[in-house]
Amino acid sequence: MNHDVSLWRSQWLGRCVEVREQGGRRIADLRALQDAGGADSNVAEPIEAEILDQAHPTPGDRVLVMTTEAGASFVVGTFGAHDGRRPHLSSGFSVECEGSAVRLVDGTGRVALEIETSTGVPQVKPMESDLAIDLVGKLSVAAHSIELRSKLGNVVIHANDDTIVRGERIRLN
Question: How many Cβ atoms sit within 10 Å of the Cβ of residue 127?
Fold first, then answer.
C-alpha cells in the first residue's frame, strides 16, 4: 500500500469503537466526530479503517483518520480518550478514569484491574479470577486491624521456614 501524502483526499477525527485483526491487518471500527470537542456524529453505522503501524488506538480513543482518493480510510494517529484522561503505557495498557474508578485497560479494551473509591475506602479489584504478588524482598502490611477472609475455600499459609504467630491472645476456632 502506498501511503504517499499526495494521495490523501481528506482527514477527519473519529472515536475508536473496536479494534480487531482481519486478514493480517489491524482494523478499527470508528464513529466520526462532529467537532474537535469530541461529540459523536449521528452516523448510525461504524466506519471501518485500517490502522497504520504508528497508531495504537484502543476503544474510546480519539483518532486522526486520513481518506485516500479511492475512499479507503486509515487511522494515522491517536489522541487518547476524548476527555484526555486515558494515558497510554509503553506496555500497551492504558489508564482510564471514570466516576470514582481508575481502570487498567489492555490493548483490546478489556479491563484488567480496577480501583474503586466510591465507598470512601479504595478497593482493588482484579478482573481476572486470580491475583499474584511476587516480590524479591519482604512484603509488609500494616493497619489498625487486618482481616483475611476466603469467600469460598481454605486459607492456606506456606512458609519456607518457621511459621510464627504472635499476639496478645491467639484464638483458634
Answer: 14
